[in-house]
Inverse folding.
């Protein structure tokens, strides 16, 4: 059952938010597997920097890892798992990717620079990255609400 504070849009279909992010991450993973030079954008650049910092490899490894994370989310969406924490735990890798991307966006806004070195005003980058922040917030609420419903 959804909590009283859950946004109206998520009460009806939190699955839509999760699936949109899932599709985005699958597409980004496919792009990385085809073109390892596609990391000039903020999200993929920050994810790749994080993967390298964690010694997980380069762009191809990140693409494969992202597909594995997508598999975890598919499992959380399709299997009744018994306890809400199991479903929520399976959605955490996808949440982590969004959080890493949003962290990179905050850094880009502060630096007034995209990952590939293009300089823009803070307002320009904020306006460009605003959908990511909205998706992060709605995904968080949707994952929590959905994990509760999947197990009840």
């Amino acid at each position: 059952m959804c909590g009283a504070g859950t946004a109206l849009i998520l009460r009806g279909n939190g699955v839509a938010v999760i699936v949109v992010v899932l599709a985005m991450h699958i597409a980004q993973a496919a792009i990385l597997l085809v073109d390892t030079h596609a990391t000039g954008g903020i999200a993929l650049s920050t994810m790749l920097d994080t993967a390298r910092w964690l010694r997980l490899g380069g762009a191809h490894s990140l693409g494969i890892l992202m597909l594995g994370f997508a598999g975890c989310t598919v499992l959380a969406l399709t299997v009744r798992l018994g306890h809400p924490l199991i479903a929520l735990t399976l959605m955490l890798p996808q949440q982590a990717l969004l959080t890493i991307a949003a962290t990179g966006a905050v850094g880009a806004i502060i630096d007034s620079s995209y990952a590939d070195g293009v300089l823009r005003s803070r307002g320009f980058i904020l306006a460009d990255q605003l959908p990511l922040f909205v998706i992060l917030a709605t995904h968080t609420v949707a994952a929590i609400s959905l994990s509760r419903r999947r197990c009840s």
Q: What stands out?
A: The chain is about 75% helix and 0% strand. The CA atoms of residues 14 and 146 lie 6 Å apart. The helical segments are 8-34, 42-53, 59-78, 84-111, 122-150.
